[in-house]
């Protein structure tokens, strides 16, 4: 038997301590895990931890500390996109025993998606946060988010155990050689009627330009990760065997608020600087000067063709209801959705 442990004792590189805490505090999530897969994962864990962790705790070579700080200071910055992504899984239903639908967040970081859903009442999912970064898993548990260290291409969950699988906010970090495996593994984990949601950004899009011209140059980690094409995503879903699949685009902006226009602009700059670990922007600049530079650079890069209902460029406006100034930086994401056919008993 696993010894019970406290959340403060859960460490990101100790899968067994995470499983013990899941068994103690979230037995329904622990029941999703497959003991047979744990041995294979532990055998590969040493090699996995030897890989460089861009989201680790070492500020000299990673951006994990800044990333967590960004989410802590502005957890609602990506709320619009999170709402839209979870909307693709709205066909998930409560289980016959009354359980909430299970969603596994394969690139969950420090638990942002679960946190936003709980705080803002988005959906009704029981979310298990997963990530390959020990620092992210430690941070998730510290924030009260149940989490499990695993790689997206080698998940530890049982066949047919969850209602939705989310791969978002970092899918380009999955090597192209492993992307088909991720889509296929998501298919394996899904129950009948389940949904796989793959979110990223198109090659050549403003986001791609941002990573190449800003994140790669001004972060401690650099950023040499290829984004996706529509055909690539559609091919993964088709080959994985989903009964229905589609590739679409959504608005997924960044937002921040302040008591004045200037404060809102500084807040979005601070958020983006921390989010992407742009520590080199501080060279020769004060903090406020660095935040303003990031804001103006984002405004220049994140521009899109006019689209019905979509923001084409940054917007700054006063929100009467909140008595705050809100700045929105537009961002459009590509989303692949793979759906499993419903079980015969679920048919209308």
Structure keywords:
globular; 18% strand; Rossmann fold; 39% helix; seven-stranded mixed sheet; 348 residues; alpha/beta; three-stranded antiparallel sheet
Contiguous helical run count: 12
Instruction: Please estimate the helix content.
Output: 25-40%
Total number of distinct structural domains: 1
Whole-number mean pLDDT:
92
Report the CATH architecture.
Answer: 3-Layer(aba) Sandwich
Main β-sheet, spatial strand arrangement: 3-2-1-4-5-10-6
Please give the number of β-strands. 10
Query: In sequence order, what are the helices and strands, one letter per element?
Result: HHHHHEHEHEEHEHHEEHHEEE
Radius of gyration: 20 Å
- In CATH, what is the homologous superfamily? Vaccinia Virus protein VP39
Which structural class do you get from the secondary structure elements? alpha/beta
Oligomer: single chain
Q: In this structure, how is the largest beta sheet organized?
A: 7 strands, mixed
Q: Uncertain runs with pLDDT below 50, 5 residues or more?
A: 1-6
The CATH topology = Rossmann fold
CATH class call: Alpha Beta
The outline comes out as globular
Task: Describe it.
With 348 residues, the protein is an alpha/beta fold. It has one domain (10-252, 333-343): Rossmann fold (3-Layer(aba) Sandwich). Helix content is 39%, strand content 18%. The protein has twelve helices and ten strands. The protein has helices spanning 15-25, 27-30, 35-50, 64-73, 79-87, 112-120, 134-142, 176-189, 206-218, 230-240, 261-275, 287-301, and strands spanning 102-105, 126-131, 147-149, 162-167, 190-200, 244-251, 254-258, 315-319, 324-329, 332-339. It has a seven-stranded mixed sheet, with helices on both faces. A three-stranded antiparallel sheet has the order 7-9-8, with helices on one face. Strand 8 and strand 9 form a beta hairpin. Helix 4 packs antiparallel against helix 11, helix 8 (176-189) packs across helix 10 and helix 11 (261-275) packs across helix 12 (287-301). It starts with 14 loop residues before the first helix and ends in a 9-residue tail after the last strand. Residues 1-6 have low confidence and may be disordered.
């Amino acid at each position: 038997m696993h010894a019970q442990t406290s959340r403060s004792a859960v460490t990101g590189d100790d899968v067994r301590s995470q499983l013990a805490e899941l068994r103690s505090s979230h037995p329904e999530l622990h029941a999703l895990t497959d003991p047979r897969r744990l041995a294979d994962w532990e055998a590969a864990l040493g090699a996995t931890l030897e890989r460089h962790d861009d989201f680790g705790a070492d500020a000299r070579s990673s951006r994990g500390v800044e990333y967590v700080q960004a989410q802590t200071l502005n957890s609602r910055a990506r709320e619009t996109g999170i709402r839209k992504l979870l909307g693709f899984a709205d066909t998930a239903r409560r289980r016959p025993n009354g359980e909430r639908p299970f969603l596994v967040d394969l690139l969950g970081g420090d638990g942002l998606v679960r946190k936003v859903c709980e705080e803002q009442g988005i959906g009704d999912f029981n979310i298990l946060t997963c990530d390959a970064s020990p620092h992210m898993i430690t941070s998730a548990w510290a924030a009260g988010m149940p989490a499990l260290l695993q790689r997206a291409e080698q998940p530890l969950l049982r066949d047919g155990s969850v209602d939705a699988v989310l791969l978002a906010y970092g899918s380009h970090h999955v090597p192209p050689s492993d992307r088909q495996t991720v889509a296929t593994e998501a298919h394996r984990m899904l129950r009948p009627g389940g949904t796989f949601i793959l979110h990223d950004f198109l090659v050549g899009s403003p986001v791609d330009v941002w990573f190449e011209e800003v994140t790669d140059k001004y972060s401690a980690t650099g950023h040499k990760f290829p984004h996706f094409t529509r055909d690539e995503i559609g091919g993964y879903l088709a080959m994985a065997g989903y009964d229905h699949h589609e590739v679409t685009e959504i608005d997924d902006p960044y937002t921040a608020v302040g008591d004045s226009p200037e404060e809102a602009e500084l807040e979005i700059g601070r958020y983006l600087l921390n989010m992407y670990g742009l520590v080199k922007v501080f060279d020769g600049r004060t903090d406020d000067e660095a935040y303003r530079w990031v804001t103006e650079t984002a405004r220049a890069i994140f521009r899109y063709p006019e689209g019905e209902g979509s923001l084409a460029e940054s917007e700054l406006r006063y929100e009467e209801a909140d008595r705050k100034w809100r700045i929105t930086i537009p961002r459009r994401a590509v989303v692949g959705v793979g759906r499993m056919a419903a079980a015969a008993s679920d048919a209308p």
